[in-house]
Specification:
Blueprint lengths: L1 E5 L6 H12 L2 E4 H10 L3 H11 L6 H13 L5 E4 L5 H13 L6 E6 L2 H9 L1 E4 L5 E3 L18 E2 L6 H15 L1 H8 L3 E5 L4 H21 L2
Helix pairs in contact: 1-9, 2-3, 4-5
Bound molecules: BIS(adenosine)-5'-pentaphosphate.
The site of BIS(adenosine)-5'-pentaphosphate has 37 residues, from helix 1, helix 2, helix 3, helix 6 and strand 6.
């Protein structure tokens, strides 16, 4: 399976990608997670991308595509790409990388949600500092406030969750990422997920669409 999860910040791509990766036994490849991990570990990549992430700006295409090539395309067979591509240039890079290997994308799921819902989701998000598990103080709360259910780690707010950074991320999304909806629609790869429902319902819808993607691949339709 080679699938892209596309959508605005806070649409729930990461939440659903984690669940689907488990369900379909494939890798969950999130460029945002790769960059944040590199920052936390003090790697050179982390130093290169920190300013972009903290300010809600996109990391340059050339660097992002190089990281995806090394850490995903050349290393893993079946994956959900969460948050890549995010520009037309990155989509072309991905196409070229796959073509060079005689491969192709199976599908793109677009998580569709209005902006007012996004802001509520992003400001209430909490992430486990230890294992990266994702919570929301209202919609997906942990059993014990501030503590991760999975590993007991401390829950934190992500550094790009200030109102200013969210505003910039949305502006970047509208200008650079939204055109990908038409790009993939024209290639007949796009399927829309109504991402406004509660998490388990979005999971149900996502799973149905992914099964459909896999079926189309098998039947060549
Ligand atoms: P990244 O980490 O990819 O952030 P993002 O795309 O902005 O997406 P988010 O992680 O904020 O949201 P999400 O859609 O995954 O939603 P989530 O499931 O967390 O990227 C961060 C930065 O890295 C970028 O700004 C950029 O600088 C850089 N970057 C990354 N990729 C790049 C690329 N390709 N090119 C250049 N730069 C790149 O859910 C959000 C919250 O809502 C959570 O609290 C969750 O619990 C809750 N929630 C989820 N689903 C539901 C639901 N159905 N109902 C209610 N609440 C829900």
């Amino acid at each position: 399976m080679k699938v892209v999860f596309l959508g605005p910040p806070g649409a729930g791509k990461g939440t659903q990608a984690q669940r689907m990766a488990k369900r379909f036994a494939v890798s969950h490849a999130s460029t945002g997670d790769i960059f944040r991990r590199a920052m936390a570990q003090g790697l050179r990549l982390g130093l290169e991308v920190a300013d972009y992430l903290d300010n809600g700006k996109l990391v340059p295409d050339e660097l992002t595509s190089r990281v995806v090539a090394e850490m995903v395309i050349e290393s893993v067979e079946d994956y959900i790409l969460d948050g890549y591509p995010r520009t037309i240039q990155q989509a072309r890079d991905l196409e070229r990388m796959l073509l060079e290997r005689g491969e192709a994308l199976d599908g793109v799921l677009f998580f569709d949600i209005p902006e007012d819902a996004i802001i509520e989701r992003l400001t209430g998000r909490r992430i486990c500092a230890q294992c990266g598990a994702n919570y929301h103080i209202v919609f997906m709360p942990p059993a014990k406030s501030g503590i991760c259910d999975r590993c007991g780690g401390e829950l934190r707010v992500r550094s790009d969750s200030s109102e200013q950074a969210i505003g910039k991320r949305l502006a970047e999304y509208r200008e650079k990422t939204l055109p990908l909806v038409e790009f993939y629609d024209q290639k007949n790869l796009l399927r829309r997920v109504d991402a406004t429902a509660e998490p388990d319902e979005v999971t149900r819808r996502t799973e149905i669409l992914l099964r459909d993607v896999l079926m189309s691949r098998q039947t060549g339709t």
